Amino acid sequence: MDKPSYTLGPFRSSVNDEDSQLNVFVSNKHFQIELKASNFEKSPTLLADYLQHLEHLEPDYLPSPDEEFDWEDPLEELAEWVELETYSKIQSRLTSKPLNTSRLLGIVRIPSSGRIVGLLLSYIESREGKTLLCIGKDPQYVSMSQKWLSQITQSIEGLHSCGAVWGDAKPDNVLIDAQYDAYLIDFGGGYTRGWVDKELSNTAEGDLQGLQRISEFLFG
């Protein structure tokens, strides 16, 4: 499947604060991704990384000749920032709701430029990388279906309680671990046709729609 064409609009920031806004145009859709330093206030390490990254993204920032600026696909970098913001919210959440997902352990970046190239997440020991899509309809696991749906529901509620969303809600983004518990993965945003409607992508409403369709997948 061909990737949708996109255009990067202006990256906006202010000398008066540490907020930032990235504008992305995909077909006839305009996406504004906003980040604030306050998103990371619970984690000094993440805050320092965000401020350093913000400095390198300033429109008038000019890197020194010895810095590496081998930029890759901007949308891939954008997905990393969306995921980073989500994990930051999970890290600082003040809720007792269960939330089965990885935890952010660190950030991988290029030392010379400070550019973030990946996230270090806690390991989920799974059954040979099996997702709910792989085994959710297998008759031998039918007794697990209600447990998995309950865990997915509780995890989505946990995400929403800390101001985050799952985004691309679908069975293939539910990992079944070695104890047969369901874990949510992939917080990079987006949607998958048939699971979440395009106009509801990256919203709490989209998560609930995906949850309903996951329920239909398990019990339909």
Task: Tell me the number of helical segments per DSSP (H or I, 4 or more residues long).
Answer: 5
H/E series, N to C?
EEEHHEEEHHEEH
- Low-confidence segments, ≥5 residues, pLDDT <50? 58-65, 67-75
Q: What is the count of distinct domains?
A: 2
Count all strands and give the number: 8
For the record, give the distance between the C-alpha atoms at the N and C termini, rounded to a whole number.
Answer: 28 Å
Average pLDDT number: 79
Shape summary: globular
In percent terms, what proportion of residues is strand?
A: 15-25%
**Broad structural category:** alpha+beta
Strand order in the sheet with the most strands: 1-2-3
Largest sheet: 3 strands, antiparallel
Helix content: 25-40%
Query: Could you tell me the radius of gyration in angstroms?
Result: 19 Å
Brief synopsis:
This protein is α+β, with helices and mostly antiparallel strands. The chain contains five helices and eight strands. It folds into two domains: 6-121, no CATH class; 126-219, Transferase(Phosphotransferase), domain 1, CATH 1.10.510.
